[in-house]
């Protein structure tokens, strides 16, 4: 039988026959075992190795490495720029894509736009037909000129009254420094109010608004389309522009083409200019039409300078914040038609 023995306190302690390590029988010495080195974290070793390779490559080909680094930097900037733009666009979509019920005029489908030509400056509401009630440029100072502005306003009200699906926009910014910070659009709305909306107040007043930033005829059209989107949540199915009859070709063939709006959904309602200004107006129109043929988006040369001159108060233009789907159209500057996609194409 196997017995267990216990040892007292006086018993000799256990000991190892050989000390830890490898015992060399020939020399009679103990070889101490090597402690395993703590290996560096692998990614660190990888980056150090990569750094050494890049440094070696730099010594051999410094110019080539510089060009490679520059190219990579440019690619990164482009990617970041595109990503930032998409993020901003998504933010705009999130901001404005809030459902049809959130837009105050969501039921309207057609746009009637009256392009402004002057600022009403009189403190009296009973002199809208008088030239001294308006701020007129030298080429506008002709008898009967003020009456033509009122004709435009009346025509816009009448067209809107006949179309229950139409939203009326008076378009024009604060274009005259000496007239003060008053917009053409607000001037036209005030005249319509003074005239009792030409007997159609109950029908039209509640759906007549303003676009107060346009500085030329192209912006009258483009900005009004964006303003319509802000108010209704959609883009117009049909557009009717009201202005002088001699400007029909400019709007119908140049501006409409520039924004790519379908010809079958676009119409122009023209009224006559004053007889005393007719000849000069036709000559001036021929010149402006030539300029827009060469610069359809009014973003270069004389058209751009004229536009900047019509912004004496340096107003910040809010568009295209309200119409993010056509942001590219606002940024485009070229002689060929805008190549991007459009909601109404």
UniProtKB/TrEMBL annotation:
The keyword Transmembrane belongs to this UniProt entry's keyword annotation: yes
Database matches in InterPro entries: C57A10.07/YOR238W (IPR055323)
Sequence intervals crossing the membrane: 63-82
Assigned keywords, A-Z: Membrane, Transmembrane, Transmembrane helix
Protein name: DUF218 domain-containing protein
